[in-house]
Amino acid sequence: MGSAHGSSEAHRIKQAEQVFAESPEARGGTGISIVNDIDLKFVFRNLERAMRKEIRLWWDVCSLENYLKCERIPRGLRIRKFPAFEVITPEFEQAWNETLTECSMNLMRLILERDKRELAITKEEINDLNKIYESNVKNLKRDKFQRDKRDYDNQTVYLWKTEKRGGRHQSHSGWERNSSREFSIDTPRSVLKPGRMVQFAGSEVARFQQSSLSPVSSSSFLTSEPELSESEPEDYRNQGNPGDRYKGKGYARRDPVYTRSNRSIQGGRDDGTTAAHHTGKDGNRNKKQRW
User: Fold this and answer.
1) Is there a single domain that holds both residue 142 and residue 249?
2) Are residues 47 and 128 in the same domain?
3) Tens of pLDDT along 238-272?
């Protein structure tokens, strides 16, 4: 085992001297096979499988050789066959057991020969896969060595990329490029999509202008009663109850909400009832007149 390892190490050293030789004549005739487009995953997968198989076969061979040497039979190879008749003498039993032992020994020798052949084949497969992978590594290291050699031959080991601007040399270092950038301040962007505009209906524009010019408090816009456009039917405009105009249109009926500013604008009336409704008889009279 030690001699085989020593010969393999000496062979590798000899190949390394030829791979890293400076002159092409020294590199010629190295016997290095150039393998291109190697699927290393396939190589590693087969190599792992072959190495596992080799280890298992080696220990099987070693175990069977020791069993045969000690004339012992493992439990898995013992033949359990017995005669059908009941009258058995000790001499017959001894001869029967010796015959079964000899048969088991012959089976063990047969299995041992088969495992030795498989072990030799597996070792050759492992050796071939190792050569493929080692050839790939050698080619990679050789190409890198030749690439670096060309850098020294062409005097391009250290590259300083410079250009003249206005008679001065300016380098392209990353710090100067980053420092010369101009950063713009982010401006607020519109929430609208490109090509979209906000449009108001005519009534909304008029109401917006009235609210911006009128001195009335903003609380006057708290009424839940929507305004009617001029295109709506007259019967809806003349109805007394604001909620009736939305019947049959899918709108929920809501009572209007009035504030002080509403009362001041409407002349003190509160949906047909005056302030006197809360104080005395005038309120009742007005209520009766309405209904």
Assistant:
1) no
2) yes
3) 555 555 555 555 555 556 655 665 555 555 444 44
Q: How many domains does the chain have?
A: 2
Q: Which two tokens stand for residue 183?
A: 């950063």
Q: pTM of the prediction?
A: 0.47
Sign of the alpha-carbon torsion through 111, 116, 120, 126: positive
Q: Is 136 helix (H, G, I), strand (E, B) or coil?
A: helix
Is the Cα torsion angle 62, 64, 67, 71 positive or negative in sign?
Answer: negative
Name the strand (E) or helix (H) holding 170: strand 168-171
Both structure tokens of 64: 């069977």
- The parent domain of residue 222 ranges over 218-271
Beta-bridge partners for 273 = 270
- Record the tokens describing residue 79, joined without a space: 């033949």
Q: Are 148 and 228 part of one and the same domain?
A: no
Determine contact, residues 83/96, Cβ cutoff 8 Å.
Answer: yes
Q: How many CB atoms lie within 10 A of CB 128?
A: 13
Which residues are CB-contacts of 71 (< 8 A; sequence separation ≥ 6)? 101, 105
Cβ atoms within 10 Å, residue 115: 20
- Last residue of some domain: 153, 177, 199? 153
